[in-house]
Task: structure prediction
Amino acid sequence: MRRAVLAKRCLSGHGWRYWSMLVLAILSLFNSGCSSLHHRGNYWVDDSYRAKGAEPRVLFLVFHYTAGDFPTSREILTGDNVSVHYLIDTEPDTQNGQPIALQLVPESMRAWHAGASYWRGRTNLNDTSLGIEIVNLGFNKAKGIGHWQPFTDSQIELVIAVSRDIIQRNGIAAVNVVGHSDISPGRKVDPGPLFPWEKLADAGVGAWPDAQTVNRYLIQRRSEAAIDVKALQNNLSRYGYQVPETGVMDEETSRVVKAFQMHFRPTDYSGVPDVETLAILDALLDKYPR
Result:
């Protein structure tokens, strides 16, 4: 008898409201796991019909160097004119023995890091990319001699860790992991010829050609009488670069060739196409067909 009275009290007044809310919560959990209906406060959403015309918002990952030290770079990148999603110092701070990457913009938001840009048919890559700025002075001259500043091991380890996480969460293709110089040839040169693209690719970040395939194409290309400039332009375009397909080795094409060489053949980035450049490009198109 006592249990019946208690049950009756629970189902009246505040008790009834409590049990109603509990039942609604259970139904909501059930629907979210077993149905297309999802409860959002004061309305429901049915997502059983999915449009084919859709794709992820984040398609590209772009690397930059800051061309300045950490305090200066942080101040600039948290100002009004330029921004980036992540900033990585030369010797990152640590927490419990693990390195810290500075996040300046949430990944869900657009940062201003790419500027005028193009890759694989897309322009204005700020809309569809995440950016990582790496603290590095870039190219400098001392006593008339120019040199590029190398990246630190701890810096690159953190770049790899952050990048792998971003790529996995967003499903970014290897060919869409690029440098600022790739998407803006001539206008930008970062992250420069000392950026270890091959090391990153070995760790699952970005694209890199297979050495055996490069050698096979190198042998084939050496037998050709001359370089077909229009075919070169077409292949660069197929890979992702914006280049005129005129058959003329003009200044714009040279800038694109230089950007490509700086990424994939950094020992010589003169902008003059040679058989090795062509063979590397052939191997990339084999490995990452479009």
